[in-house]
Amino acid sequence: MIAAIREYPLTTSILAALALAAVVLLVLVRTGRIQLPTASRADFTHSIAAYQHMSGTQFEHAIADLARRDPSVRTATVSGGANDRALDVLLQLTDGRRIAIQCKRYAPSNRVGAPVIYAVNGTYRAYHRCDQALIITTSAFTPDAQRANAELDHPLRLIDGRALGRWVSGGRPPWGN
After folding, report:
1. What's the pLDDT at 35?
2. Distance in angstroms between the alpha carbons of the first and the last residue of the chain
3. 74 neighbors 93 (Cβ within 8 angstroms)
4. If you write DSSP's letter for every residue of the chain in order, what string do you get?
5. Among residues 91, 112, 122, 144, which is most buried (max CB within 10 A)?
């Protein structure tokens, strides 16, 4: 070993420095002084779990808060509740567009059905004067809902739990061009 150190002093010094850096990093991580980034899959699961444990009203406010992170959002107003006419969050974008969001905080086994598609489609333009509509759920959409949406002249943007998780984790907002 000593012969190798004498024969390759530069290589030995580099290896010693790397070993020391690894030990220091390990100590810092174990003592909590630094945290390594977690896997995005864990972030996704945690984010969706947090949303699923909210009340409907809390979920609507959380979606409005999430929307406000986007610099293109001028205002995000929560207007859900009884007789909300399929509008939980109203977005005003800096480019003048108005976007209606219907929030559905459902358990993973409870999917959003076609009646929700029909309700949102029937009100977002004529009643709320919006340019676009989104339905955001922590769950998924039934095949009937997806088919009903595909048949619309102006399909809505359907954001399921997976897409919501990507948005929460720093992805693009669903009203992007």
Report:
1. 65
2. 63
3. yes
4. -HHHHHH-HHHHHHHHHHHHHHHHHHHHHHTTSS-PPPPHHHHHHHHHHHHHTS-HHHHHHHHHHHHHTSTTEEEEEE--STT-TT-SEEEEETTS-EEEEEEE---TTS-B-HHHHHHHHHHTTTTT--SEEEEEESS-B-HHHHHHHHTSSSPPEEE-HHHHHHHHTT---TT--
5. 91
